[in-house]
C-alpha cells in the first residue's frame, strides 16, 4: 500500500443565499493528498468513519465577518462537524491504534489531530452501532437529555409541545417526556413523520403543513406547559399564544431563520410577562463539560433496553454529505442524517 | 358625628382605547354612603389612607372577556390597587383599631374587608412615611428586590441596562445593581429624569427620546449582561441586539404595549438561541408568599440608612388618582405616584 494516498474532502466554496447548493456552495476537492507514514509530531492520525449532518451547519456557511454562536466555515477550507473516527496511528499516549474517538472532524478521509481536547474515546460497552454516537447518543440526544434536565422543569401530568418532533432532537424529547409522564403534543412536516412520532408514543401529532399550528393547539382545549422550540418564527408565536401561565420555553433551534434573510417578527412576546414565562436558549456544547459523563452513563443503556427508539438516515460519501445537508434543511430527511465516509470501518 | 357618611369612590366607567380619560373612562361616584356603626359580621372597617398608582392598572381597564394576568376591572365598580389603610373598627381578632394595614383596597373612602388573606399589618419599626410602603417598600421595591435576587444572576463587574429607570421599579433596580458592583446603563424619557437617575449612581444615562437606544448601546462599545425590561417592543429588540452571550433578560413590564392596539413585532428573537439568553417574565404578586418576609426585614432599613433613595409624587384625592394614572402611563410623573385619600391620617 502506498503511503501517499488521496485525501478527498468537502470544501466550503461559496456563501449560500438560501439553501446550500451541492457542487456550488460546497464542492468535493480531490486534489488533496496525505502521507500516512509521515511523522505526526505528537499528533493522532485518524480515519474519519462517519460524520453528523445538522441544521446548524447552515449557520456556519456565512460570511466570516458575521458573528454568531458557532464559528463560520472558511472559504476553501473543509466543512467540519461531529463525527466518529478510527485511530490509525498515534504519537499521543492518550490514544492508541484501533480506538474509536468522538469529536469534531473535517469532512475528509484522514485527519491529523494535535489538539485533542475535544476528542473522547468511546468505550461503547453497550455495543451500539457507531452511527448512534452521532444521533441518539450524539449532539441531538445530548441536547434533548441535558436541555430537558436543566430547563424543562417538567412535572408529571403537564403538557409539552415539540416542533420538528421527528427530528433527531425532537424524537428524543418526545420519548423523554413520555417516560416522565407528560402529555406530548408534536408536529412535523409530513404524514410519514407524523406516523413515526406516533410510534414513539406522542399523544397528539399533526402535520403543520396541513393544519395551522395555532388552530391545532386551540382545538386541544388546553394550554402548553413546556414548548420545546426548534423552529422560532411563526411557530414560536403560536406557541406563545397557547402557553399556560408559568410555562417554560426551551429554545434549541431556529431552523425557520436559517435560510431566510428576513426573519419573521413576533408580535406577542408580551406573553412572557403576562403569562410569567421563562425562555432558555442553549447550545449543548456549552454544557458538555459539566454533563457529558452523566449523559454517557445514563442514555446509551436506554437505547439498548429499547426505552428510547431512534431512526437514522445514512448517506454515503462526501456527495451524500452535501445532499444530507440540503435534505435536513428542507426537512426532507427521515431521522438523524449521518454521512459515512469509510464504510469498511462502520 | 353622624354614623351614615358619604363614601365617595372612583369607578371604572368605560374601556379606554388608548390612554384613560379622567371623567370618562373613570368617574367619581359621590352617591355611595356607608354606616360606620353598622355590624361588620366578622369584618374589618378600614379607612383608605393612600393608594398606589401603577402602569399595570391600564391592563385591568379592559373588556372583562379578555384574559390577562391581573383580573379586569368591572364597569360600575371601583378601581382597586395596593394601599395603606387605617383600621377604624374590627370584629376580626387579627386586626385592632389603629392598625396600619397594607393590602388591596378599592379607591374609596371606607372599605369593609372580610377576606383578610392579603392584608398585612405594618409594624414600621423604621418609622418610614406610610407612602413609602407603596413605593420603595411597596410593589415596586418588592419587584426590584425579589426579581433581581431570583432572576438577574448578577455578578460584580457585569453590565445591566435598565429602561424607565427613573420609575419606581427602575430606580430601585439601579441602586441595587450599583450596591452589588455592576456597571449600570439606564434610560428615561426626559432630561430631568436622566439627572435624577444619575443622582442615584447610574454610570451612563441617556434620554431615549433624544437618542436612539440601539445607537446609545452600541456607542458604549460593549454588551449587556442583564437587561431589566419595563417596556417591551422596540426597546426589547434593541436590548436583544446588544446582549452579551449568556445574558439574562428580566421582564417585569411591557408599558409599550399597554396603550397600543397593535403590538410592535420583534424580529431578532433568534438571539435567545444564538446568544444563549435566558428570559424571565414575572409578576411579584406570585412571589410574595415566599419572599415578602425577607423583603420587609431587609429593604426598609436600606431606606433609613440612606443606601436606597426614593422619590414620590403625591396626588390628592380621587381626582388626583385619575390624573396620576394618566401621568404614569404617559411617563409624565416623576417618582412613584401615590394618591392620598385621607390626608389627616398620613
UniProtKB/TrEMBL annotation, chains A, B:
Residues 29-339 form the Enoyl reductase (ER) domain. The keyword Oxidoreductase applies. SUPFAM superfamilies: GroES-like, NAD(P)-binding Rossmann-fold domains. Keywords: Oxidoreductase. CDD domains: PGDH. Signal peptide: none annotated. Gene3D superfamilies: Medium-chain alcohol dehydrogenases, catalytic domain (3.90.180.10), NAD(P)-binding Rossmann-like Domain (3.40.50.720). InterPro entries: ADH-like_C, ADH_N_2, ER, GroES-like_sf, MDR_fam, NAD(P)-bd_dom_sf. GO terms for molecular function: oxidoreductase activity, acting on the CH-CH group of donors, NAD or NADP as acceptor. It holds the Pfam family ADH_zinc_N. This is Enoyl reductase (ER) domain-containing protein. It comes from Sphaerobolus stellatus (strain SS14).
Amino acid at each position: 500500500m502506498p503511503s501517499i494516498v488521496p485525501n478527498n474532502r468537502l470544501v466550503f466554496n461559496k456563501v449560500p443565499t438560501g439553501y446550500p447548493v451541492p457542487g456550488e456552495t460546497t464542492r468535493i476537492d480531490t486534489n488533496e493528498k496525505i502521507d500516512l507514514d509521515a511523522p505526526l509530531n505528537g499528533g493522532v492520525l485518524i480515519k474519519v468513519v462517519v460524520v453528523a449532518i445538522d441544521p446548524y451547519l447552515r449557520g456556519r456557511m456565512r460570511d466570516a465577518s458575521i458573528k454568531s454562536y458557532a464559528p463560520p466555515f472558511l472559504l476553501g477550507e473543509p466543512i467540519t462537524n461531529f463525527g466518529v473516527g478510527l485511530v490509525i496511528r498515534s504519537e499521543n499516549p492518550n490514544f492508541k491504534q484501533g480506538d474509536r474517538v468522538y469529536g469534531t472532524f473535517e469532512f475528509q478521509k484522514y485527519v491529523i489531530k494535535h489538539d485533542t481536547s475535544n476528542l473522547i474515546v468511546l468505550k461503547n460497552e453497550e455495543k451500539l452501532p457507531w452511527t448512534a454516537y452521532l444521533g441518539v447518543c450524539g449532539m441531538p440526544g445530548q441536547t434533548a437529555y441535558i436541555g430537558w434536565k436543566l430547563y424543562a422543569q417538567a412535572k408529571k401530568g403537564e403538557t409539552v409541545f415539540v416542533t420538528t418532533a421527528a427530528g433527531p432532537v425532537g424524537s428524543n424529547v418526545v420519548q423523554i417526556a413520555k417516560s416522565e409522564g407528560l402529555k406530548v403534543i408534536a408536529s412535523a412536516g409530513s404524514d410519514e413523520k407524523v406516523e413515526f412520532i406516533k410510534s414513539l408514543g406522542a399523544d397528539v401529532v399533526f402535520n403543520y403543513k396541513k393544519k395551522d399550528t395555532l388552530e391545532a393547539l386551540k382545538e386541544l382545549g388546553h394550554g402548553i406547559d413546556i414548548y420545546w422550540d426548534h423552529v422560532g418564527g411563526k411557530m414560536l408565536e403560536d406557541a406563545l399564544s397557547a402557553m399556560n401561565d408559568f410555562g417554560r420555553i426551551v429554545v434549541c433551534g431556529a431552523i425557520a431563520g436559517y435560510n431566510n434573510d428576513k426573519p419573521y417578527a413576533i408580535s406577542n412576546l408580551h406573553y412572557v410577562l403576562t403569562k410569567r414565562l421563562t425562555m432558555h436558549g442553549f447550545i449543548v456544547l456549552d454544557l458538555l463539560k459539566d454533563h457529558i459523563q452523566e449523559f454517557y452513563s445514563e442514555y446509551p443503556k436506554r437505547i439498548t433496553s429499547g426505552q428510547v427508539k431512534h431512526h437514522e438516515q445514512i448517506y454515503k460519501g462526501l456527495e451524500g454529505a452535501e445532499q444530507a445537508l440540503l435534505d435536513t434543511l428542507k426537512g426532507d430527511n427521515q431521522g438523524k442524517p449521518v454521512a459515512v465516509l469509510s464504510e469498511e470501518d462502520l
